[in-house]
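NADPH-dependent F420 reductase
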Amino acid sequence: MTLPAIAVVGGTGNLGAAIAWRLARAGYPVTIGSRNAESAEKAAAELGHGLRGGANVDVVANADIIIVTVPFAAQEATLRDIAPHVVGKLVVDTTVPLVPPKVMRVQLPDEGSAAQKAQAVLGEGVTLVSAFHNVAAHKLSKDIDVGCDVLVFGDDKNARGRVVALADAMGLRGLHGGALVNSAAAEALTSILIFMNKTYKVDGAGIRITGDLIPPEA
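Structure:
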């Protein structure tokens, strides 16, 4: 089976680079995107595993799945840049609405969540899924068992399933979290995890869902 081509927008950042490295190592064809093509090419060369790099607008044009891994402050501008090139495609938004300096306080945007804001910017012609909100990038970038579940949100069940499969391929456990509106819960939880990291001196707290889960039918 041919694996889908992945473009990681903002792939020179910590989370983007870690996701790209994990997926490339799992055999996916992955291209790192950045506002500066040279920066992306350099990062790809350093990460290895056949990764390539280029400008954001170029890498998304040739991808089946686009994973957006930029800070909240850059989310809207980045999405507007790539919007004309992702119509009809699956976009995975990882954005958490952290507003410095109070990153340990939940500060969801007026739209209800960063994911809902992303959908509004991209329009109905794009299938949007949100995920990877609660995974510590510095752990994801290492060859270790991260021990973290990934909640995946989206209004299209099949699209959610594709992202659940990506999380599984990365050595995590992807779980359906329901409709896109539910993304607000995972986005808000990130601020709580940051607080817990500081309060309990944890090195990248994550989440695990308890119980014997039976995977849903495809």
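The two ends are 17 Å apart (CA to CA).
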